[in-house]
Sequence to fold (408 residues):
Amino acid sequence: MIEQLASKVNANPGLVRRGRCLSTEFLIEIGERTFHVTVDQGRIAGVEEGPFIMRAWSFAIRAPETVWEKFWQPHPDPGFQDIFAMNRFGHCRVEGDINVLLSHLRYVKDVLATPRRPRIGDNSDD
Amino acid sequence: MIELEPIVGRYLTLSIAGRDHRIYFEEAGQGTPLVCLHTAGAHSSQFRHLMCDPAVTDRFRVVAFDLPWHGKSTPPLGWQDEEYLLTSDFYVAVVIAFLDALELDKPVVMGCSMGGRVVIRLAIEHSQRMQAVIGLEGSDRPAPWYDNSWTNHPDFVNGDFCVGLVSGLCAPQSPDEFRWETLWHYYQGGTGVFKGDMHFFRTDSDYTANSAGIDTALCPVYLMTGEYDYSCTPEATIRTADRIPGAEAIIMKEVGHFPMSENPAAFRVYLLPVLDSIQARI
Fold:
C-alpha cells in the first residue's frame, strides 16, 4: 500500500493543492519497516525505506503492520478509521513536532488514507 | 413546480443574563416538541433530514436553533472585543430561555455531542418540564482525546483544522455526500467558535456528581452512540447510563459522532423506536 502513496497523492490535484503550503519530511513506521516521506509543496517528492542513521523528520506515525492493514481497509473496524482514533485506543503512536501535523491536519490525514481508495476527496468540497 | 422542503426558519431575540441574543431557529412537523441541539462548532442544519422525515414530523414538532455565535444566530453586541467561551450555565440558560420563548410544553430535548452532554444537566435540574431527553454521542463527563495545549494552537481557530480534527469521527460507511456536508458545517463556523465550545465540552461539563439523581420515571434518558465515535466512546456512554438508574444506552452500528447528519438513513432505524417508546408514555 505504501508503495502507491506518491503516485496516488500526486495524481490528485485537489489534495496537492490543499498541501501547497507544506514542505516537510515525516516518518511512517509499519512494524519493523520505516518509510521517510518527503513533501514538497503538497507533492510527495519521495518515499524512501530505511533504516536511517539520524535522518531528519518533523513527525512520525508508528504502528504495527496489522494496524495499518486495518486502517487501509475500505471500511476499517471501529477504532481503526483514523489516526486519532488509533492513537486514542493505543493502536498507533504519533510523535515529534505535533505543530507541523496540526497546521496541515486534513492534508496529512488525507495523504495517509490515500492508499485506502483510488482517489481521496471524491465528492468533497474540492 | 419546485418542491419546497417543509422546513421553515424564523428569528427571535432571547434576553439572557441581561444581554440580548438574536437566535435563528427552524422547524417542521406538528405534535410533541422535539428540540434539537447541534454539536460544537456547527449549527442546526445538522437536523435537516429529521425535519423532512414524515415518520417523525407526523407526530413531533421538530425544532432546532443555532446557539449564539453559531450558524445564523448573531453574536451579542460587543462580540468583537471578547473571547467566546461557552459555559455550562450559559448553555442551560439559552435552552431554557428558548423553551420559554416558544412556550414549548413538555418537550423531548435531543442534543448531539456537547448537546448530548448538556441534556444530562437539563435532566438533572429541569426533569419536571421535560418529556424525555436523548443524548446522541453523549456522556456525563469530559473525556479528552487530545492535549489541552492544542486549543491554544494558532490553527485551532481555522475551519480546515476543525474539519481535520473531526473528520475521522464520521463512520466509513456514511455516504460521502452527507459526510462532507457534515464536515462543511465545520468550515462554516466563525473563527474561534469551535474552540469556545470546547471550553464547555472539555472543562465545564462534568455532571457525574449529580447524574445518578436523575428521576428517569419523570424524565426518561436515552443515550445513543455510534460505534465509530472515539470522542464520546460507546464505553463512555454505557458508563454514563450505568450511573443513571433507568437510563438506556443504545450503540449504533456503522455510525460515528454525527448520526443525524452523516447517515440519516442509518440513524432513523435507531431513533424511531426511541420516539415510539417516548410517545407511548404521552
User: Anything to note?
Assistant: The first strand of chain A starts at residue 24 and ends at 30. Strands of chain A lie at 24-30, 33-40, 43-49, 59-63, 93-96. Chain A is about 30% helix and 25% strand. The longest helix of chain A spans residues 105-113.
